[in-house]
UniProtKB/TrEMBL annotation:
Residues 12-21 have a biased composition (Polar residues). Gene3D superfamilies: Ribonuclease Z/Hydroxyacylglutathione hydrolase-like (3.60.15.10). This is 3',5'-cyclic-nucleotide phosphodiesterase. Pfam families: Lactamase_B_2. Signal peptide: none annotated. Residues 38-243 form the Metallo-beta-lactamase domain. It comes from the Bacteria. Residues 1-21 are annotated as: Disordered. InterPro entries: Metallo-B-lactamas, Pdiesterase2, RibonucZ/Hydroxyglut_hydro. Residues 1-11 have a biased composition (Basic and acidic residues). GO terms for biological process: cAMP catabolic process; negative regulation of glucose mediated signaling pathway. One of its GO terms (molecular function) is 3',5'-cyclic-GMP phosphodiesterase activity.
Length: 277
């Protein structure tokens, strides 16, 4: 087969459960809210969620119930806001817990500020402490987790709070990476270059070039910074841009287009990619 897997946009016909593909479904890719805008959330196959922004709210109940693992990039609200609703919606007394994987700082923030019986019940102790609906599992950048042949690795990122990105790969099928929220950091690009392959890279470009001061303060990418850093990537993946600030989507799109002639798409939040080896 080709060294570069075939990537189909939505709609698609092959089944993510077929065992021969890796499905990446974008549920939310906006930096804010409004008609048609959902915040960051990505469904891998049927059972793995990366971030739990407002895009999760569009899934049907059986799709919500199929989620077994949630990987969080960081603690900011646009990435975790729908986790409490997800857990409350799907938990059953006889169901195994949903596992949330994240940096220790992120898990501590969730426990202290959200699942604290004030903002939301503590589902790490409900319905009973022995059989909770939610369990936390701490991870560190570089750590690799095997979930039925899907290898998930936390990638270094640089944001205003401790943050990671993730790569998800199936050897011989394809590899997807997501930056999470980050500004420029050589650690991310070095780690991406060390991956054996990279077929689809989803990376944020949160703010337009004229807001580079704000981008520096809030640690997001601008088009100029991103295109500069992409020069250092040894892989040639399809690039998918996410987390655009509402109202600036067209500006960011144009700024990226004038500086880049690669295979780049700006996500609207309802795309689906099928990596097939
Ligand atoms: Zn953030
Ligand atoms: Zn964000």
């Amino acid at each position: 087969m080709s060294a570069h897997p075939h990537i189909d946009d939505w709609p698609h016909t092959s089944s993510p459960e077929s065992g021969t593909s890796l499905s990446v479904r974008i549920l939310g890719a906006s930096g804010g809210i409004g008609p048609g805008r959902r915040t960051t959330s990505i469904l891998i196959d049927r059972d793995i969620l990366i971030d739990a922004g407002s895009g999760v709210g569009d899934l049907e109940l059986p799709e919500l119930q199929a989620i077994r693992h949630v990987f969080l990039t960081h603690s900011h609200l646009d990435h975790v806001a729908f986790l409490p609703f997800l857990i409350d919606t799907v938990f059953r007394v006889d169901a195994p817990p949903v596992t949330v994987h994240a940096l220790p700082d992120t898990l501590e923030a969730l426990q202290r500020h959200i699942f604290n019986w004030v903002i939301w019940p503590d589902f790490t102790a409900l319905p009973t402490p022995e059989h909770p609906a939610l369990r936390f599992r701490a991870l560190e950048p570089g750590e690799q987790i095997d979930l039925d042949g899907r290898w998930i690795t936390a990638l270094p990122a640089r944001h205003t709070v401790p943050a990671v990105g993730y790569s998800v790969s199936r050897p011989d099928i394809g590899a997807f990476a997501f930056s999470g929220d980050t500004t420029s950091t050589r650690h991310l690009w070095r780690t991406l270059n060390e991956l054996p392959r990279l077929d689809l890279l989803m990376i944020e470009t949160g703010l337009p070039d004229e807001m580079d001061h704000l981008a520096g303060a809030t640690r997001h990418y601008t088009p100029l910074q991103l295109v500069r850093d992409l020069d250092h990537l040894r892989h040639r993946p399809r690039i998918a841009i996410t987390h655009l600030k509402p109202g600036y989507e067209q500006t960011i799109r144009e700024q990226l287009a004038t500086r880049n002639n690669g295979d780049m798409i700006v996500l609207s939040g309802n795309e689906r990619f099928e990596l097939v080896g």
